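Human:
Class, as today's exercise, you are to examine the entry below, and be ready to discuss the fold:
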Amino acid sequence: MLGHGNQEMSSNTQVFWGTNINANDVQTKLKNFINTFVELNDNDEDENDDQFTKAPFYFGKLTLLRQMEETVLEVNCDHIFQFDQALYRQLENHPINVIPMFDLVVSQIYKEMYLYSHIGMGGGDQNAAMEGDDEATDPVMIQVRPFNLRKVYRIREMDPTHIEKLITLRGIVIRCSDVIPEMKEASFTCSGCGQEENRFLEKGRI
């Protein structure tokens, strides 16, 4: 079982909890999208051979993340729509399930890209590369940040059907309040014996 969202990945159940979406199919589609999607410009429509010579678009994005030492990958949802409209609708309607899986898929591809380039430069095998560089074994988690949904809503168009959906809002911010942190966990230390005890808060109460 994956500890992200409401995903169930047991041997008997291969669907997201509460849906009929096959989690393995979604994972395969996300991998294929990152590994194969090529962005074509308007000038490339008459040059069909370009789509076979260009490198996958998001490989370049992941390489740039490595160079900039960042961990957030911005994914254009219009690219997903061009690649697979069914996958786009699953992302739009079930973001709580799909986005965490997208994070896992991209993180794995990122790790494989780095290990491959490391082995290629060093001429060794994968085990030697991982032993020779501590960074290769560090668990890097890439977070996917989707943007550019095809439909844009206004605040007045919001209704209960948009709960737990991925949507884009357009409006003007007229007022900002201070950020008020919410306590999630409290730690108590006895002044006499030094014993520590942690308590998780439920609805603002210990």
About this structure: The two ends are 29 Å apart (CA to CA). The domain at 23-179 is CATH 3.30.1640.10 (mini-chromosome maintenance (MCM) complex, chain A, domain 1).
